[in-house]
Each structure stands twice: as structure tokens, then as C-alpha cells.
Amino acid sequence: MTYDFVPSGHNPLADDPPVAAVESGGPNEGPRVLIEPKQFQYEVVQGFFRQNGPKPKTHDFEYMLKHSFGLIDETPERWENLKRDVAKLQAEAPADVQYKVFFLGRHGEGWHNYAVTQIGIEPWEEYWAFQYGNGTLTWGPDPELTKTGVAQAQAIQACWKEQAPLGAPIRKDQIRWYVSPLTRTGQTMQESWGELLTGVPEVWEDWREVYGSHTCDQRRTKSYIEERFPSFKIEKGFAEEDELWKPDIRETDEHMQIRGQRALDRLFGSGPDHADETYISITAHSGNLRNLLAVLGHQPYPLATGEMIPVVVRATPVRGNGVA
């Protein structure tokens, strides 16, 4: 398949490096931390999951699906051991230090991801990402999953069903679910969990993909989300129209880290959005999650479409800000 457009120069709104629409998640590198801790200092606790380091990414997600999402412990008691060890860390920690285990999932393949494979990354970043389609494919606004994307999400559900009898912490009294407001993440949430989704997923704007310019990242209305995903709970203050997406502005890594940190501070903080649960599922996007991992102090770890990474996190209040 060929297209008339030929890139003629660097588009200032192009992603560098391109990660948001790339199926592989881009190169094995991540942004440096561009912000200072606000309410909490976040640290990754290694020793539980392969993905958390110190070794860089060496296996694809199919391997992790065959190895309990990357758990280093491969004994039949692996999930019970994880829950026991995390509870022990919490019990022995200072009163204001918290531990949580995040399951960070990138949505399955969407039509914009498929379009990149057909068009090529350079013409996509220079021109096509800013269009709504090419006459053959439509990827904006807010594309849905392809059949491949649905299958990728269902592979996660199948793995959870295998792990549940071994004590995986996925009961609604153990885990809380969060999701980006974009359609592809809502679909991925549903397909990744199926009947295992016994709680109410919460929709937060802070989990969405890079704001602006790329039409695939323009969200639909609040009314559409409520109708399409009636079992989801939308956060307070959520606007009917997308007030964050602008056609001539592309969000920076620094700003994505600000809102990633803001969302984490809401989860760990003492306000109304505090999560009592130790285990947290977040279904989001490549660009969003690479910056969230940076805020957490995690090693660079590009997520392919449909990939999920578990992360054990320690949150320590920053002194002198009124939290501690």
C-alpha cells in the first residue's frame, strides 16, 4: 500500500521518540525524571517481578504470560508468598510509609496502531497522526481495538484465570481498577478481566494518553463514555467535551509526569480518592505509562500493545509539605 504524502521535514508536533502509536512501545529507553516529588517519594521494590530490574527488558510479554506475569517466584505458593511478603513490608514500615502493587496495562492494538504498521512510522509522525484517516482506515478520534487488540486483552484474562486458583490478589476487596477515558482502554479493561472484574473501574483523565494534535488521542464525550461503559465510575469534575486536547499542542513528558504524579498522590494521599486496597490495576497508554514509570523510579520498560507490567511500589511522604 502506498500513499501520496512524502515527509518533507521534521514536524514540531511529532513525538520524539515515537512511542504513543508504536505497537512495540518504542525503544528500550525512557524519559528522565523531569519533576520533583510533591506529596510522596516513589520507589520501586525489586525482587518480586522480573520486569522491575535490575536487568533490562529481555523477554516479550508472551513469555511473561507463561510465567505468572513475571513473578520471580515460580513455586505453587507464589501469589500467597507475594501477598505475605508485601503485607510484611507494610507491617514493618513506618506508619506513614505505604506499599502497593500496581498492574500497569497498555491497551491492546487499536486502529491507529495498525495504521502505523501500514503507513510507516515516519510518515505517521510527520503527517498522518494529525489526520482522522486516509480513506481506507479511520483512527480518529478515539479509535477502538482491532480484533488483534481484543485477542491481546483476552490473553491477559486467560492468564488471570490460570493464576486465580493460586491466590492471585484479584478479589474486589483486594484490588481497585482504574482506566483511561479513551475507548480502547475501556475495551481493554473489559476484555482483560471479563467476569473477574467484580469491582467498579474508575475513569480518570490523568490516565489518558498524550494530550493534543494526534487525533487518536482525542477523547469522546462524557455522555458517550457513560453509555458505552455503564459499569464504569467517572471521576468528579469530568467535562462533557474534551477540553484538554488541542490540535496545535502536543503535551510534553514533563507535563505527563506532573499528572502521573498527581494521580499517584491521589491514590496514596489521605483525601477522598485514597485507595485502601494494596493492589491497583491501571489500564492506560504507552506514552502515559513510560512517564508514570519514570515518576516511580522504574527502569525504562517499553510496553507493547496489550502488555501489562506489575510494579511493587514504596511511597514515602515528602517532609515539610503538610503530608507527613
Give a short overview.
This protein has helices at residues 61-65, 78-92, 111-119, 121-126, 147-163, 183-193, 222-228, 253-268, 286-296; strands at 40-44, 98-106, 175-179, 202-203, 233-234, 279-284, 308-317. It is α/β, with parallel strands linked by helices. Strand 4, helix 7 (222-228) and strand 5 form a beta-alpha-beta unit.
Explain what this protein looks like in three dimensions.
There is one protein chain. The chain is built from 9 helices and 7 strands, in the order βααβαααβαβαβαβαβ. With 324 residues, the protein is of the alpha/beta class. Strands 1-7-2-6-3-4-5 form a 7-stranded mixed sheet, sandwiched between helices. α7 links the parallel β4 (202-203) and β5. The longest helix is centred in the middle third of the chain and has 17 residues, at 147-163. The chain is globular, with a radius of gyration of 19 Å. The termini are far apart.
Question: N-to-C SSE series?
Answer: EHHEHHHEHEHEHEHE
Radius of gyration: 19 Å
Largest sheet, in brief, is: 7 strands, mixed
Shape: globular
Low-confidence stretches: 1-8
**Terminal Cα span:** 59 Å
Helix content: 25-40%
Decide which structural class fits the backbone. alpha/beta
Number of helices: 9
Strand order of the largest sheet: 1-7-2-6-3-4-5
Total DSSP E strands: 7
Strand proportion, as a percent range, falls in 5-15%
Question: What's the mean pLDDT score?
Answer: 94
GO molecular function: phosphatase activity
Protein name: Histidine phosphatase superfamily
Organism: Papiliotrema laurentii
Region (Disordered): 1-28
